[in-house]
C-alpha cells in the first residue's frame, strides 16, 4: 500500500493518491447563472398593475356626509414660583404663563375626493405649562383636517362655512387660552403674589360635513340613458358601464380639455328616477351634487318611446328638490342615435322641445364634436366671466 501525501497549493488543498488526483475546494461554489430565457423573462416582466375596484367597492370609499366631534386643545397651566439666586434674597415672582391650546382647522384639498378619510372625533394639541424665569409654555400645534373641495360645514341646521375653493380653511374648534403665572399678578400693592390660573379647556363642537361635488356641468338622466358612456367618451373618467340600471353608485367627475386650453369639469350624477325627491330609488342622496353645477346636460334615451317626457320628468324632480334648479342653462343630449328606432324619433323630439337638441351616440362617438362645442359655449358664457374677475 502506497502512502498518500497531502499537498497545499495556495488556497486549495490537493489530495494526491497513486493514479488519482482529487481537488477539494475550500470556498463555496459560485451561484448558478440564470439561463438566457429566464433572465430575459425577469427583465421584461411587467410590474403588477393596480387592481381596479368595482362600483360597489368605490361606493364604500365614497362618503359625502360625516358627523364630526372636534375639540380644541387645552391651554397650559400657569406656574407660581419665585426667582432664586445667590445673594439675592427677594428675587420676586417669575412664574411664566401657559401656552395656548392648538386649534382644529378644516382645509379644502384637491387631492381628497370624499369624506371617507375624515374621522368621527378630533382632539387638538394641548399647550405646555409655564416655567421658571418668566418662561411661557409652548402653544399647541394646529391640527389640520383635509376635506374635499366643495364641503359644507353645518352646526345643527346652520351653514357656518363653505369650503368651495382649494386651500380655503375654517377654524372648527378654538384652542383654550393658557393660564397666567404669578408674574402676571405682580402689582404695587402685591409684591409677592402666589396666585396662578389653570389653562382653559378647548372649544368643543359637533359639526356635520356635507360634500357637494364641484363641477361646471352636471349630467342628469334616467338609468341606462348612457351618462357614464358619454362621460367616458368625452373625458378620461372611467365610470362603470353595464346594461342594467343603477350601474353608477357614486358621482364621477371628468375633465373635458378644449382646444383653447380650457378645462370643463363634467359630473355624472346617479340616482335620478321618477320620485327621486320622495327618496325613491337611490333617493335624494346625490341630488345635492347638482346644486353647484352652473349648467346641466339632460341626457335622453332616444330609443325609448316618447323621449321628450324624460326631460319633463327630470325637470319636475329637480324643481321639487330645489326651486329654480330646473331653470338653469342646459342642453338636451339625445343619446343612442346609432339605433334605428332612435333616429326615427329625433324629428319628433326636436319638434316637441322647440329648441336645438344635440343628437349623438356615446358608443360610436358620432356627433361628439357638436356637444363639445356646446359645452365650450356654455362655459364661456356662464363660467369664464366670473374667472376674469
Task: Provide an overview of this structure.
The protein has helices spanning 36-43, 55-61, 227-234, 308-321, 340-353, 368-382, 384-388; strands at 5-9, 12-17, 20-24, 65-71, 104-109, 121-123, 143-148, 151-155, 158-163, 169-173, 204-211, 217-220, 252-257, 263-268, 295-301, 330-335, 358-359. The N and C termini lie far apart (110 Å). With 389 residues, it is an alpha/beta fold. The radius of gyration is 36 Å and the shape is rod-shaped. The strands form four sheets. It has a six-stranded mixed β-sheet, with helices on both faces. The chain has a five-stranded mixed β-sheet with strand order 6-4-11-8-9, with no helix packed on it. The longest helix is centred in the C-terminal third of the chain and has 15 residues, at 368-382.
Give the helix tally.
7
Work out the radius of gyration.
36 Å
Strand order of the largest sheet: 13-14-12-15-16-17
Note the run of SSEs as H and E.
EEEHHEEEEEEEEEHEEEHEHEHH
| Global structural class | alpha/beta
Helix residue percentage: 10-25%
Average pLDDT across residues?
Answer: 80
What percentage of amino acids are in beta strands? 15-25%
- What does the overall shape look like? rod-shaped
Largest sheet: 6 strands, mixed
Overall strand count: 17
* Straight-line N-to-C gap: 110 Å
Amino acid at each position: 500500500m502506497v502512502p498518500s501525501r497531502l499537498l497545499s497549493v495556495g488556497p486549495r488543498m490537493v489530495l494526491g493518491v497513486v493514479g488519482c488526483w482529487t481537488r477539494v475546494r475550500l470556498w463555496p461554489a459560485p451561484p448558478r447563472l440564470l439561463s438566457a430565457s429566464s433572465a430575459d423573462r425577469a427583465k421584461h416582466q411587467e410590474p403588477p398593475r393596480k387592481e381596479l375596484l368595482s362600483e360597489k367597492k368605490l361606493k364604500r370609499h365614497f362618503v359625502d356626509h360625516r358627523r364630526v366631534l372636534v375639540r380644541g386643545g387645552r391651554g397650559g397651566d400657569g406656574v407660581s414660583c419665585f426667582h432664586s439666586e445667590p445673594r439675592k434674597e427677594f428675587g420676586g415672582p417669575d412664574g411664566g404663563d401657559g401656552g395656548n391650546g392648538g386649534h382644529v382647522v378644516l382645509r379644502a384639498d384637491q387631492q381628497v375626493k370624499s369624506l371617507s378619510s375624515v374621522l368621527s372625533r378630533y382632539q387638538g394639541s394641548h399647550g405646555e405649562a409655564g416655567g421658571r424665569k418668566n418662561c411661557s409654555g409652548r402653544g399647541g400645534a394646529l391640527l389640520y383636517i383635509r376635506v374635499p373641495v366643495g364641503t359644507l360645514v353645518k352646526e345643527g341646521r346652520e351653514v357656518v362655512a363653505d369650503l368651495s375653493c382649494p386651500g380655503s380653511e375654517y377654524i372648527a374648534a378654538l384652542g383654550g387660552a393658557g393660564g397666567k403665572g404669578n408674574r402676571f399678578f405682580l402689582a404695587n400693592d402685591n409684591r409677592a403674589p402666589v396666585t396662578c390660573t389653570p389653562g382653559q379647556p378647548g372649544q368643543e363642537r359637533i359639526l356635520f360635513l356635507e360634500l357637494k361635488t364641484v363641477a361646471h356641468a352636471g349630467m342628469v338622466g334616467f338609468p341606462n340613458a348612457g351618462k357614464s358612456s358619454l362621460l367616458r367618451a368625452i373625458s378620461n373618467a372611467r365610470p362603470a358601464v353595464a346594461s342594467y340600471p343603477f350601474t353608477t353608485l357614486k358621482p364621477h367627475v371628468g375633465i373635458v380639455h378644449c382646444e383653447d386650453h380650457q378645462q370643463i369639469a363634467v359630473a355624472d350624477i346617479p340616482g335620478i328616477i321618477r320620485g327621486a325627491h320622495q327618496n325613491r330609488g337611490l333617493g335624494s342622496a346625490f341630488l345635492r351634487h347638482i346644486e353647484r353645477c352652473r349648467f346641466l346636460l339632460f341626457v335622453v334615451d332616444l330609443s325609448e318611446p316618447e323621449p321628450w317626457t324624460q326631460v319633463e320628468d327630470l325637470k319636475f324632480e329637480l324643481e321639487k328638490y330645489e326651486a329654480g334648479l330646473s331653470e338653469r342653462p342646459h342642453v338636451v343630449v339625445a343619446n343612442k342615435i346609432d339605433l334605428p328606432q332612435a333616429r326615427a324619433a329625433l324629428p319628433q323630439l326636436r319638434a316637441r322641445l322647440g329648441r336645438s337638441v344635440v343628437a349623438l351616440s356615446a358608443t360610436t362617438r358620432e356627433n361628439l364634436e357638436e356637444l363639445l362645442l356646446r359645452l365650450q359655449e356654455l362655459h364661456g358664457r356662464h363660467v369664464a366671466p366670473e374667472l376674469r374677475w
